[in-house]
């Protein structure tokens, strides 16, 4: 799959929750090739921010040529993006990385999609492309949620966990899975490292293959700089050590292929 760099036109920017923004971009050549689980890199206009910001794809509309990003403002780069207006342009590179393997959920298999925090957005396009054969389990800090109604429309079941118990099951996503008796044949997950550890442990214990998307700070986004490596169970052919490049070899991995510490 070819990577393309282009100037994308912003069509909308809206705040979904405190510090969480949704941005739609017009980028037909990238939208035509992108798949759920991939990401794009966005370049800042400010010259002192040289490295691009990688952001996962939340929605992909190949027919309209648009991409949706949902991101949290965590620094100068994402703050710049949050203040953009319709008609503004931003330089992007993509699609990058390997997406979720949808073929693992073919036939009558049922998928469990598990997301936490800013790892939730990539699950929306995935749920839509899996055609409602899904249970989505999402974890929030509190009742200040985002994308929840859209996930309910895309999946046939949504289970919620909140840290403070203000909505759904009190606790984390694994607590919610156990409390609600969630079952499935394959797991797709994206979120913070502690959550992914729990997902891997639960999936291995229950004999369910799990594909997890790693969140990591990236530099080049194309696998050249080795700044975003994770420990793998096998020797990597590129570096000849037990490493995988998250931006190039991932961000999606079979859980048993990598060590989560």
Write a concise synopsis of the structure shown.
The protein has 261 residues and is α/β, with parallel strands linked by helices. It contains 7 helices and 15 strands. The protein is 21% helix and 34% strand.
Shape: globular
Helix content: 10-25%
Major beta sheet, strand line-up = 10-9-8-7-11-12-15
**Category from helices, strands and their pairing:** alpha/beta
Fraction in beta strands: 25-35%
Regions with pLDDT < 50 over 5+ consecutive residues? none
What profile does the largest beta sheet have? Answer: 7 strands, mixed
Query: N- to C-terminal separation?
Result: 31 Å
- Return the average pLDDT rounded to an integer: 90
**Topology, number of strands:** 15
């Amino acid at each position: 799959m070819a990577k393309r760099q282009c100037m994308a036109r912003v069509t909308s920017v809206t705040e979904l929750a405190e510090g969480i923004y949704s941005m739609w971009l017009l980028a037909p050549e990238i939208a035509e090739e992108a798949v759920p689980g991939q990401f794009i890199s966005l370049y800042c206009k400010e010259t002192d921010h040289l490295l691009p910001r990688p952001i996962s794809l939340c929605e992909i509309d190949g027919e309209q040529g648009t991409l949706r990003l949902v991101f949290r403002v965590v620094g100068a780069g994402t703050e710049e993006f949050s203040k953009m207006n319709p008609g503004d342009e931003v330089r992007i590179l993509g699609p990058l990385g390997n997406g979720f393997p949808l073929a693992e959920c073919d036939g009558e298999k049922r998928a469990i999609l598990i997301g936490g925090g800013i790892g939730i957005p990539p699950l929306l396009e995935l749920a839509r492309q899996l055609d409602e054969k899904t249970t989505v389990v999402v974890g929030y800090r509190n009742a200040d949620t985002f994308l929840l109604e859209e996930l309910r429309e895309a999946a046939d079941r949504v289970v919620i966990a909140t840290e403070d118990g203000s909505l759904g099951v009190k606790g984390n996503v694994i607590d919610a899975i156990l409390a609600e008796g969630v079952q499935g044949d394959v797991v797709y997950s994206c979120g913070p490292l502690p959550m992914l550890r729990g997902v891997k442990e639960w999936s291995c214990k229950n004999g369910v293959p799990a594909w997890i998307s790693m969140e990591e700070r990236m530099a080049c986004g194309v696998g050249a700089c080795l700044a975003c490596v994770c420990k793998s169970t096998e020797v990597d052919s590129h570096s000849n050590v037990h490493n995988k490049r998250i931006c190039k070899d991932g961000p999606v991995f079979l859980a048993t292929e990598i060590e989560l510490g």
